[in-house]
Write a structure and sequence with these properties.
- The chain is α/β, with parallel strands linked by helices.
- It is about 35% helix and about 20% strand.
- The protein has twelve helices and 16 strands.
- Helix 11 packs across helix 12.
- The longest helix has 16 residues.
- The radius of gyration is 26 Å and the shape is elongated.
- The two termini are about 45 Å apart.
């Protein structure tokens, strides 16, 4: 049994995202006076008095604008209504009732789904009765007067939500081991490289809005699903431009959320544009992934546009990509087309391979026998006439695999020998597709952490 679903719907700028954040208890959806920020459906889990349910934030429904975007957003809202066990129909108590509210009320009645009428932005309790009088004309009993911004009335609303929904208590769905946890994959890249198209192709249906106009995706969109007995959580993010080109405050917020999604992921798919080739901004994003210590796959999207290239030109192009991302030499490269689906299926076995290496744990005995052979094969050069001695190695962590190597003079180990140790550990334990961390430590002293 899955957790019951509550969808928040309403016309633009009535405070749906503010209510979403209030019920969630944290700021997940971006909120601003500018209408139309929510484009894709945002999902999250809410716990209230021992009950668990999933809540969906949706785009504003509008009948006053005529465009393909309005049609797409309406479809997104209808998907949410179809999924929901209960709908929160949010209206604006400050601006009052209008024809779009009436249209949405009629739409919800036709859907046959149960819904609560929520009258938001009632910040002065003394005016509640006067404001609600207008909304009774919708013919909906028991409207809920609230202020999502200040939290007034939201606890009563939550109480009635959990009373209405079937009881669901969070279960321990995943065992406490790496093979049963969902693999969290974040898709990142510059604007308009095809991140949303790729996610839709992976899922097999239009989960996120796609537009030729860059900047359509704003809030990170998480989608959890199962494939081949393995659980995945994919995250679509806003396109990230060069810092100097980011002028608007809201874009900075969206970029910050995209970078935060990288930090919360296991693996980042860095999507680049085959038509443009790798850019400096792609390198900046790759550097961020590397510094965050995350697994990485480089996807070259729009590969279908290179059909006129000769085999030698394709070979040269791939060589350029590898050279451009030589600091991510552990990242597999997959040419693909999100539009046609070419090579999209290859991402899944690659993700699992990267994740397996990313979460590898090696026994201390095996590590120390390997270290002994590695040092015997190539002794570290002496420093100031004194020999550097390595004592033992342990693995204090995974994700990425982290190895603490104890020696007598860690500060004197040359960077070239550090690289030798890294390469030997990679080769010995088949860790070619994951970042690793090497810690050179003197017994009783603090660590020196090296990211590779």
């Amino acid at each position: 049994m899955n957790a019951p679903v509550v969808a928040i719907v309403g016309r633009p700028n009535v405070g749906k995202s503010t209510l979403f954040n209030r019920l969630l208890g944290k700021r997940k959806a971006v909120v601003d006076d500018k209408p139309g920020l929510t484009v894709d459906r945002l999902y999250s889990e809410v716990q209230w008095k021992g009950h668990l349910f999933t809540i969906i934030d949706t785009a504003g429904l509008s009948i006053l604008k005529d465009s393909s975007l309005v049609e797409t957003l309406t479809n997104q809202v209808m998907f949410a209504i179809d999924e929901a066990n209960l709908i929160l129909f949010v209206t604006d108590g400050q601006s009052g009732l209008n024809e779009e509210d009436q249209f949405i009320a009629d739409l919800l009645r036709k859907s046959g789904k149960p819904f609560f009428l929520v009258v938001n932005k009632i910040d002065n309790p003394r005016k509640t009765s006067l404001i609600l009088a207008e909304f009774y004309s919708l013919g909906i009993d028991h409207p809920y007067p609230i202020s999502a911004l200040h939290g007034t009335g939201t606890e009563d609303l939550l109480d009635d939500i959990v009373k209405f929904l079937p009881f669901y208590q969070e279960a321990s769905e995943y065992k406490d081991d790496e093979t049963s946890k969902p693999i969290k994959v974040t898709i990142v890249g510059r604007p308009n490289v095809g991140k949303s198209t790729m996610l839709n192709k992976i899922l097999g249906f239009p989960r996120v809005h796609v537009s030729p106009e860059p900047g359509t995706t704003k809030d990170p969109v998480e989608v959890s699903f199962e494939r081949g007995g393995r659980h995945f959580c994919f995250v679509d993010t806003a396109g990230i431009r060069r810092k100097g080109r980011i002028k608007e405050r809201l874009e900075k917020v969206f970029v910050g959320k995209a970078l935060e999604s990288i930090n919360l992921s296991d693996i980042a798919i860095l999507l680049i544009d085959a038509q443009e080739g790798p850019t400096d901004q792609d390198s900046h994003l790759g550097g961020y992934i590397q510094r965050a210590g995350k697994g990485c796959i480089i996807g070259i999207n729009k590969w279908d546009t290179l059909v006129d290239k000769s085999p030698q030109e394709i070979k040269n192009f791939l060589a350029i990509v590898k050279e451009h991302f030589k600091f991510l030499d552990y990242a597999p490269i997959i040419p693909c087309s999100a539009l046609t689906g070419k090579n999209i299926a290859k991402f899944f076995p690659t993700i699992e391979k990267v994740y397996q290496q990313y979460t590898t744990r090696i026994g201390t005995g095996v590590l120390n026998r390997a270290l002994e052979k590695i040092v015997e094969k190539h002794q570290p050069p002496a420093s100031s006439g004194r020999q550097i001695k390595f004592y033992y190695v342990t693995q204090p962590g995974i994700a990425p695999p982290t190895f603490a190597i104890f020696c007598n003079r860690p500060e004197d180990v040359h960077f070239s020998y550090e690289r030798y140790l890294e390469n030997q550990i990679r080769n010995t334990f088949k860790l070619s597709h994951t970042p690793i961390k090497i810690i050179l430590r003197k017994r009783g002293e603090s660590s020196k952490i090296l990211s590779a």
